[in-house]
Amino acid sequence: YKCAYIPNNEVEEAIVSSPHHHLKVVKFSGGFGRTNYLRFVDYILENCLVLEKVIVDPCSGTLNLMLDSTNFEENVRKKAKQHFEARVPQHIELVFL
After folding, report:
1. Are 64 and 72 in contact (CB under 8 A)?
2. 95 pLDDT tier (thresholds 50, 70, 90)
3. What local confidence, expressed as pLDDT, does residue 53 receive?
4. What is the pTM of this model?
5. Residue 42 belongs to what H/E stretch?
6. Residue 53 and residue 10: Cα distance in Å, rounded?
């Protein structure tokens, strides 16, 4: 696997409509809920022609200063699951961490 990290302020620049013919597995980590992030997720789903698997870890790297971090993470995971399940085609395996 090759990993790419795209800082939040560069997501807009990374979104260029262009089909990808080789990307089979993608992992989305943290940052869930930001508009740019969600647009990037949609871009990947629309342009990766041979995508087989999407891995989602919505709480990865999340700095949480709230007292009830379990409730916070549960809510983030629930929202991420709703977003991805509504968008990821059934022929693509969807895994939540």
Report:
1. yes
2. very high
3. 96
4. 0.73
5. helix 35-47
6. 24
